Amino acid sequence: MTAANPVAPRRLTPVPDRTGLLLLIFVATSALLLLSHNRDLLDTLGGLGVLLRNPIVEAIVVSLFLANVLFAYLWRAAPWAKALVGLGSLLLILPWAGQEDTSLLDLSIQIMIFAALALGLNIVVGLAGLLDLGYVAFFAVGAYAWGIFASPRFAEIGRYFVENPGASAAATAVLGALTLLAGLGGYLALQRRRADDLSGSGAWGLTLLLVAGWVAWFLAGRGLFTLGERPWSLAALWIGLVPTALGLLYLAYSRGRGRDVRGALLGLSRVLLALAGVVGTVLVARSILLLTAEGITGLTTGIDPGFFWLFLALSIFAAAVVGVLIGLPVLRLKGDYLAIITLGLGEVIRVLANNLDLYSAGSQGITPIGSASVGWFDTLAARLGFAEDQYGLLFLYVLSLLMVALILLVNVRLDRSRIGRAWIAIRDDEVAAQAMGVPLVQTKLIAFATGASFAGVMGMIFAAKQTFVSPESFNLFQSIGVLAMVILGGMGSFPGVILGATVVTLLNLRILPGLGEATAGLSWIPQQANPGQLQRLIFGAILVAMMLLRPEGLLPSRRRTLELHHEDPQEDDSAKGTGPSLTGGGGDVYSPGLETREEDEPTGGTK
User: Fold this and answer.
1) Per DSSP, what are the bridge partners of residue 212?
2) Over the stretch 60-114, which tens digit does the pLDDT of each residue have?
3) pLDDT in tens, 540-552
4) How far is residue 550's CA from residue 409's CA, in Å, rounded to a whole number?
């Protein structure tokens, strides 16, 4: 490393202990937050109460209070003081203030949801270096996984299958199980094969056999099953068959030009088998719906709230599976190409939610969506003085806090594991990582599935909090917003990502709307220039300024800082060892090996 001072090492100034200051700020901001959200007390304070009710002042008070947790993390203070400030802020003061103003609890849940999303995307983008612009698709999977079953929509689905069975449940189950086993077994078998293991005629024969099998399967299914009163449309067969035929013609042309197309044929065969597995899973699920349709029609308010905990695990699994399915065909791409195709796949999920009216209610959305009912927690909330209509929001607040803590713990453990080091190696140099034995596809799929699972579970909590989900909640701007949180906070830095999510959420939900509301009545500000109408412009300007002034983020990791500022003089570590400084009259620079002990000893020392 470049020596900043070749004569003497840089002496670090000791960091002062700020325990007292931390506690003082915590007490002051906590009192201010409780005062600003106590309406009865504000009515007695006259002008001060009016000032504290101002939206801008209220947003500043909330921001200053949340800064306590940041100070507890950054400052040097006694461990008991850090724990007191962190736990006291999140477990005592915020719920206490939220008892008077439930919008504060709602804001806190939103911050934690986006913090968890940013932590998940940070694995994909910050650690593995995969630019995913369709990340919100996994969020939608978790939201709809709970929203469909915990709402009246579930009874409507059962009623539809009672009126339009299309086929017997037993026949659907048999066909689905056979298709699933054939697709999954064939895919796993081909995963162990390499293109070099197949001859040219063998690769062509396998692919053509699978295409013929797909056509035969479709025609057989069309003869046995219907969609209501209608047979399966032949257009669905042609939509898949024509692109496949064009691809095969192109591969035949390439083979005629002397190119080796065995790898492409093997990849196409894997795709066909993976599609068979997906179709088989859908048919098995359909058979289950047919078998239970009569009972489902009676669930006019959705399934029992006790299944909430089971669906927490199912939402993680479903989002991880979707992450793997999206990742499989695209992970050989990188950079801008990966960003474009993940953007498209994310939009596919949103369009499917918009068009599958039977399951998602289309653009109208699903409502009302239930939440968990925890008797002992409701009793505890009642004893703490919360109103009955606040039980659910307080429960989701505590659940979100626990989920963020668990996700953060998993992130830290993964970052320090062999998988985390493999992600960082792939991000820095894919070719070098592969040369060192890192399996690229498997490692990238783990990153996709892990990040997707975090988004899935938080999507379920989001659906339970909003009691309403629609495709508009999962558009491209949500993915861009989460990516902005990761970049603004600091890619690869877990505390930085949480800080970025907090800052962006406060800007979008409190500070900028409060600024617009406070200036709406000022006659000297034209309506067209009101900050309330220019929130996107102001937010964009803040991001541009941030990238120009601090590109590594608000709270970057040391690794990221060194990457962006490697030209700057670094600390001279030579004084910590027995060797001389690296530059300037401190001695020669020897080759790697043992240090020389005498002037006439050969370079590298003696063994």
Assistant:
1) none
2) 888 899 998 889 988 889 999 999 999 999 999 999 988 888 889 999 999 999 9
3) 888 888 888 888 8
4) 27
Model pLDDT, residue 143: 93
Task: Calculate the alpha carbon distances from 517 to 63, 279, 520 in Å.
Answer: 18, 51, 5
Query: Which stretch of DSSP H or E encloses residue 226?
Result: strand 226-227
| Nearest of 320, 340, 317, 321 to residue 330 by alpha carbon | 340
Helix %, strand %, coil % for the chain, to 5? 70, 0, 25
Residues present in the chain in total: 607
Q: Return d(Cα 599, Cα 248) in angstroms, integer.
A: 71
In terms of Cβ atoms closer than 10 Å to its own Cβ (0-12, 13-18, 19+), residue 242 is exposed
The answer to whether 433 and 440 are in contact (CB under 8 A) is yes
Q: What is the dihedral of CA 208, 344, 503, 386, to 10 degrees?
A: -80
Tell me the pairing of strands 230-231 and 226-227.
antiparallel
Q: Would you state the structure tokens that stand for residue 185, as one six-digit string?
A: 């077994």
Task: Please list the alpha-helical segments (H only) found in 328-367.
Answer: 336-355, 357-360
**Whole-structure pTM value:** 0.82
Q: How far apart are CA 44 and CA 479, in angstroms?
A: 45
Which residues neighbour 182 within 8 Å (Cβ) at sequence distance 6 or greater?
273, 276, 280
| Other CB atoms within 10 Å distance of the CB of residue 542 | 16
The answer to whether the beta carbons of residues 353 and 144 sit under 8 Å apart is: yes
User: How many whole angstroms separate alpha carbon 272 and alpha carbon 275?
Assistant: 5
List CB contacts of 476: < 8 A, sequence separation 6 or more. 133, 136, 343, 346, 347
